[in-house]
Design brief:
18 helices; glycoprotein; Jelly Rolls; 12-stranded mixed sheet; 47 strands; alpha+beta; single chain; binds 2-acetamido-2-deoxy-beta-D-glucopyranose; Leu-rich_rpt; Leucine-rich repeat, LRR (right-handed beta-alpha superhelix); DNA helicase activity; 7-stranded mixed sheet
């Protein structure tokens, strides 16, 4: 810690708190550094100047062909050892993109191009190296906000002067860019490419609602998209593309693509920041009309990674149709700096490969920041009106604040605070006493009043300067316990009472003159006691710092959870009921049914359509017999139609239909018997013993049920809307796997279109409010009901309750929404749940809220819900394995989860993962 730097007091006032919600699109902030007024640019972004910055110079520049106003100015900073920070308000637990751009424009008329660092909070983000005066350098991070503010700092001027042109903050919504590493890593953008682009212009806002910048593949740059295979052709369409999947690439990007007419697509490009582990996704949509005998199948080939080539992409099949997004990728893949890749047609494919877009981000490890960060932030908070309290960023990293010094640990601690003569008022903030590494404290020559606090929390204190203030009260005796104290200056205050004798028996420079009431134990003379030498003190200081570091290093970090995950979104094979072999329903006689049920002896349930009885067939098979209420299906013909439909629906997450009976005016349906009863009974009923089900079990049940529902929506033609999803319609088998029951009894949904029905059917608490009002039934009505079920799984509360949700609230949706949206997830988690990973809980809570959005169009599809549940399960299994302390467990379980998700699972090292895809293992279901 250089003395010169310590004494150098620079003027810096960099705190900028801008409420992101005031911008044109909620969560957008566009800062025109060096600008002088607000303006709206040609694409509709509203720019604001950074004119609250009191440091740095505003410079106007002129760059040929650059007409955008935000690039006519920049702000430059002194080339020194300090950091210069911009701070923004953000919403915690929300993902954002932050983009910093730098257009040099030779603003300083210097022959040396600038080189400096930018950091994001304490994390070193990038080194900005200007290599061309007229080219914009750009850095972009995607992050999950954990604190209410973020800061971007410029520092480490290596050559030239640090400067900045723009800072852009863009808020995401939903689970876009979720990844299981996000608590420890940021995503730093390396490539985001729009293939087949029709011009050199990038696609961004408003085409991309989040203002991501999708670079055109026709821009010519060094080592950027070279080695293009012969036969590569651009194609485009005007057809709308369904992009409503996780990353929401803009439709405009998906409407163009490149195809390898000669069977291959090849590209080479440099990936900034690599080699490193990264996040890489491809975006595909079939935008050509394929003939009936045409197939487009291809593999991804990355030299040195043969495993990645095992999976075959078939866009139309993977996306479940034309003009629909399919986004396979890797959450954690190691990529080289020079990325050279190929898509190659398979031998049985008639069409060459196609690629619409590509996105590659690097994982940037978050820095924990200095150990005393929160304490210093609290101190700064109490002096917000002072410049020195507004320097922003971390107190120590990448450069310390002007008034502190830090240890040089990987996790630095504050060793010195120097706030002499800063006009401080009030009492000494108690936060100072929490700095365990503090060696020097200088608060002299202020107007501080009140007592001297207890500094026993700072055992390393060597120098305390409190002279020339208005401190009163007695000298705390704890000062005498500071074994390292060598200098205590308290002269010219209003202190009184006895000087603790401990202070008089030490090698301590103590100056207490000018305190009228202060006297030695024996009431003796008010004399300075100067003992010891400064040399001795210096030796002690070194000893202090060293021992303190050793102590800190002994602390172990908790083991990391989170395993590599090579999973891709689930693949679905579209199939239609009409194509499958329709099995004829088995017709039972009433006598057989009476026999099996012992004349309807044991009632096991009742539902909207009738009463259910336990039965056992002659061959020992256990069955559930549903005797429909008389008016359910009057006509024999209608009954037969329904039954033949039911007999054709097979999915392992749907209760199996076995047969029926219609005699003597009774209509009876026979299903497989589910041993463990209903989910409802396990959550609230008689089966809730010993705290009921743990969180993993609940997630597994949710996954099973969601798959069953998704199959009804997408696997059946025409699609089936359940209409009456609720916890009593989710049944559990011997192994506690869930199946959905009571489906298909409502009228079939008309394929793709809304269904209008005269009777609103459903159960209070689960009923989609939009359907209730409009009577327009869509599959999103089931999504609503499923959202309610998810909330029940989280909270262990029933959908409707007169007592449990507080005043004026009978409904779980209102209640949960209120808590979750205010960040209080804990407030709704079932007290019976003890071990769970809060991340997986948040994922489900957020998805559940999306499911119960008032309008169907805002709710996700079941496939998205499934993916979220699977992600939550992967997190939870990882966390459980850590809890159980077994690393074998981690690998076994994560292998299992990639099996569940596996589709284009090219990260998996084993063919089995592809073969056991559920759609293949259960052909009858698809
Ligand atoms: C500029 O925009 C910001 C944020 O949108 C607003 O707070 C400020 O009042 C505007 N300034 C002027 C001069 O309009
Ligand atoms: C500016 O644009 C013109 C016309 O498009 C072009 O000829 C010229 O080379 C460009 N200048 C620079 C510096 O890019
Ligand atoms: C400052 O930048 C130089 C050159 O990029 C680098 O070697 C050095 O490690 C950086 N210093 C800090 C403290 O980050
Ligand atoms: C997220 O943003 C996209 C794009 O603006 C929008 O279409 C979607 O409805 C939003 N989702 C939610 C849950 O707000
Ligand atoms: C495509 O391949 C064929 C046969 O290999 C070759 O004759 C043709 O020139 C290739 N087309 C292009 C554009 O390279
Ligand atoms: C990605 O995988 C590598 C190697 O398997 C591992 O070291 C790393 O921690 C994983 N996660 C991230 C975010 O890099
Ligand atoms: C003690 O403080 C007084 C008042 O500031 C000063 O005059 C005196 O020189 C100091 N004594 C020593 C030994 O530093």
């Amino acid at each position: 810690m250089g003395c010169a730097k310590f004494l150098f007091v620079f003027s810096l006032y960099s705190l900028f708190l801008m409420d992101a919600s005031t911008a044109q699109r909620p969560g957008f902030v566009s800062l025109d550094c060096g600008g002088s007024n607000n303006f709206t640019d040609e694409i509709g972004l509203e720019w604001t100047p950074d004119n609250y910055m009191l440091t740095g110079d505003i410079v106007n520049i002129v760059v040929a062909n650059e007409t955008r106003k935000q690039y006519k100015t920049l702000r430059s900073f002194p080339a020194d050892d300090n950091k210069y920070c911009y701070t923004f308000n953000v919403v915690s637990r929300t993902r954002y993109l932050i983009r910093a751009t730098f257009l040099y424009g030779n603003f300083d008329n210097n022959n040396v191009y600038p080189k400096f660092d930018i950091s994001f909070g304490p994390t070193r983000w990038a080194t900005i190296v200007i290599s061309d005066a007229n080219t914009i350098e750009l850095q972009e991070l995607i992050f999950l906000a954990t604190d209410p503010t973020i800061s971007v700092c410029l520092s480490n001027a290596t050559t030239g002067q640090p400067f900045i042109s723009t800072l852009e903050l863009r808020q995401f919504n939903g689970s876009i860019y979720f990844n299981q590493f996000e608590s420890q890593f940021y995503l730093s953008m390396s490539a985001r490419i729009n293939f087949g682009a029709e011009s050199d212009e990038p696609v961004r806002f408003p085409d991309d609602p989040f203002d991501r910048i999708w670079e055109s593949d026709s821009v010519r740059k060094a080592n950027y998209l070279v080695d293009v295979a012969p036969g590569t052709e651009k194609i485009s369409t005007q057809m709308p593309i369904d992009v409503s999947r996780d990353e929401w690439p803009p439709q405009k990007v998906m409407q163009t693509a490149v195809v390898g007419r000669n069977g291959s697509l090849t590209y080479r490009l440099n990936l900034d920041g690599f080699p490193a582990p990264g996040w890489a996704f491809c975006y595909f949509a079939e935008i050509e009309d394929l003939g009936p005998s045409d197939a487009r199948k291809f593999r991804f080939i990355l030299p040195g990674a043969p495993d990645l080539s095992k999976a075959v992409v078939n866009i139309q099949e993977n996306a479940q149709g034309q003009y629909r997004l399919y986004e396979p990728g890797y959450y954690n893949i190691s990529l080289p700096f020079v990325l050279s890749f190929r898509f190659g047609r398979t031998s049985d494919s008639t069409m060459g490969p196609l690629l619409n877009a590509l996105e590659v981000n690097r994982y940037l490890k978050k820095s924990d920041g200095s150990a005393d960060g929160p304490v210093l932030a609290a101190i700064a908070m109490s002096y917000l009106s002072f410049k020195w309290a507004n320097e922003g960023g971390d107190p120590c990293i990448p450069a310390p604040w002007s008034w502190v010094q830090c240890s040089s640990d990987p996790r630095p601690m504050i060793t010195s605070i120097k706030l002499s003569g800063k006009n401080l008022l009030g009492t000494i903030p108690v936060e100072f006493t929490k700095l365990g590494g503090l060696v020097e404290l200088w608060l002299d020559n202020n107007s501080l009043s009140g007592p001297i606090p207890d500094f026993s929390g700072c055992p390393n204190l060597k120098i305390i300067h409190l002279e020339n203030n208005r401190l009163n009260g007695e000298l705390p005796s704890s000062l005498a316990d500071l074994s390292k104290l060598r200098e205590l200056y308290i002269q010219n205050n209003l202190l009184a009472g006895k000087i603790p004798s401990g202070l008089l028996n030490k090698y301590l420079s103590l100056n207490y003159t000018g305190n009228a009431g202060l006297h030695k134990e024996n009431g003796g003379s008010h004399k300075n006691i100067i003992i010891g030498t400064s040399v001795g003190a210096a030796v002690m200081l070194i000893a202090t710092i060293t021992s303190c570091f050793l102590l800190r290093k002994g602390k172990k970090k908790p083991p990391r959870k989170g395993e590599s995950q090579h999973n891709l979104p689930p693949q679905k094979l579209a199939s239609s009921l009409g194509d499958t072999n329709a099995e004829a329903a088995h017709y039972f006689s009433l006598a057989e049914i009476k026999d099996a049920t012992n004349n309807f002896e044991r009632k096991i349930g009742s539902g909207g359509f009738g009463v259910v009885f336990y039965g056992r067939l002659l061959d020992g098979k256990e069955i559930a017999v549903k005797r429909l209420t008389n008016d359910s299906f009057q006509g024999k013909r209608e009954f037969t139609n329904e039954v033949s439909l039911l007999s054709r629906i097979h999915h392992r997450n749907l209760v199996q239909f076995i047969g029926c009976c219609q005699e003597e005016g009774k209509s009876i349906l026979v299903y497989e018997f589910m041993h463990k009863g209903t989910l409802k009974e396990h959550l609230y009923g008689p089966l809730t013993h010993g705290g009921g089900m743990n969180w993993i079990k609940r997630l597994e049940i949710a996954e099973d049920a969601a798959k069953g529902i998704d199959y009804l929506h997408t696997g059946c033609v025409p699609a089936i809307i359940h209409r009456d999803l609720k916890t009593s319609n989710i049944l559990l088998d011997k192994n506690m796997r869930a199946k959905v029951s009571d489906f298909g009894l409502s009228k079939l949904a008309v394929d793709g279109a809304s269904h209008v029905s005269s009777i609103v059917r459903g159960t209070v608490g689960y009923l989609d409010p939009e359907y209730y009002i409009s009577q327009q039934l869509t599959d999103k009505s089931d999504v609503y009901s499923f959202g309610v079920i998810l909330l029940e799984l989280i909270s262990g509360q029933e959908a409707i309750s007169n007592e449990n949700f507080g005043h004026n609230c009978r409904n779980i949706v209102q209640w949960a929404k209120l808590h979750i949206e205010s960040g209080d997830l804990q407030g709704i988690i079932d007290p019976a749940l003890h071990e769970y990973d809060i991340q997986s809980m948040w994922k489900i809570a957020e998805k559940a809220l999306m499911c119960v959005q008032p309008h169907g169009s805002m709710r996700p599809w079941m496939s998205e819900v499934i993916k979220e549940i699977q992600d939550a399960l992967a997190i939870e299994r990882g966390a459980e394995a850590v809890r159980e302390g077994s690393s074998d467990e981690i690998s076994r379980r994560s292998a299992h989860s990639s099996l569940n998700l596996g589709s284009l699972d090219i990260g998996a090292s084993d063919h089995h993962y592809l073969a056991i895809d559920e759609s293949i293992a259960h052909p009858t279901a698809r």
